[in-house]
Predict the structure.
Amino acid sequence: MIETGTYLHQMRATAPLVHNITNYVAMNMMANVLLSAGASPAMVHAREEVAEFAGLAQTLTINIGTLDPAWAEAMEIAARTMNAAGRPWVLDPVGVGATRFRQEVCARLLLLRPTVIRGNASEILALSGLGGQGRGVDAADPVEAAETAARDLAGRTGAVVAVSGPVDFVTDGASAYRVLNGHALMPCVTALGCSLNGVIAAFIAGQEQLGATAAALAYYGLAGERAAQGAAGPGSFLTAFLDALHVLTPDDLRHGARVVAA
């Protein structure tokens, strides 16, 4: 059984600096999510400084949501810097199946060996070369349809692969877990999925990757459950969600996490 509370305690004790190259839509939300969780966020994407800044950070996230050639180059530079320092990074292949440009950039990023790959089922299917029915950045495939692809992708890349959905699936290719925490209001707030990347990155900084990723997913989902209890809709849910991230304790997570072996 994963000791989820220990991962949360360690993340907050170290308060890692998380370097994020993410999309314009997600920047503000992601910063607030990471601050609420107990980590330190930074949004840095200029080619002229990403290597220097990545050298200061404990962990990195790369999200291809609002991609352009300069950002793609910066992503590769930052990933190489993290690899050279032996530090982890998370790849979110947003809408990878939508355009050839996204596919080409993700193919190059995969060669740089991300520590964790997180996406919806359609993105993981597309990234693994099995197709998928994504509509832009949305998933039209159920999580279950991507489980075999996730195991294969993890085995080929050495990454932990997390498939987000009503029930999350996370695997390193050998072991796997399903995370049952979450709430239906979470997809109603834009960039909550993108912001999850930062929480995963914060959890895996200096910690075992598969367990830390599953713990991060459970923590995020449990915060969603707590926030939904008094929310009237997406607006009040968002405020309550940030509060829940902030006040959830390791003991809360230890007792509330619903993580099962798959």
